[in-house]
């Protein structure tokens, strides 16, 4: 016999645990196992550079390490200034356009805010 609570959105009795969360397989709703409040999925993500400064869309950053470009013999050199960055989701959390190279994604751990 299941002791898990019913889904607060659709009242389905078929909920299951996924780590610290409870999940409803019928409507896809997720909420904390503590049961206090639904977990917000729209939390603002904070992206920091190599020295801990918070990055925002439109910032200018400097590359702190030579970066080889996958599939090319080009290299982004140390000290390359990148203007007007855009924060993105995923492994490479900065989308940008670098003069002489073009559009690419960078990891925030390899840049420093100017």
Automatic annotation (TrEMBL):
Annotated transmembrane regions: none
Species name: Ideonella dechloratans
Entry-linked InterPro entries: YjdM, YjdM_C, YjdM_N
Location of the Protein YjdM C-terminal domain: 47-114
The Protein YjdM N-terminal domain, residue ranges: 3-32
Stated family: Belongs to the YjdM family.
Pfam families named among the record's database cross-references: YjdM, Zn_Ribbon_YjdM
PANTHER family for the chain: PROTEIN YJDM, PROTEIN YJDM-RELATED
Protein name: Alkylphosphonate utilization protein
């Amino acid at each position: 016999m299941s002791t898990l609570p019913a889904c607060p959105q659709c009242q389905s009795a078929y909920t299951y645990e996924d780590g610290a969360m409870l999940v409803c397989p019928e409507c896809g709703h997720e909420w904390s196992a503590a049961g206090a409040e639904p977990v917000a999925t729209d939390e603002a993500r904070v992206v920091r550079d190599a020295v801990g400064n918070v990055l925002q869309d439109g910032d200018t950053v400097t590359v702190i390490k030579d970066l080889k470009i996958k599939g090319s013999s080009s290299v982004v050199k140390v000290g390359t200034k990148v203007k007007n960055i855009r924060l993105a989701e995923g492994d490479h959390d900065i989308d940008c356009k670098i003069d002489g190279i073009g559009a690419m994604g960078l990891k925030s751990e390899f840049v420093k805010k100017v």
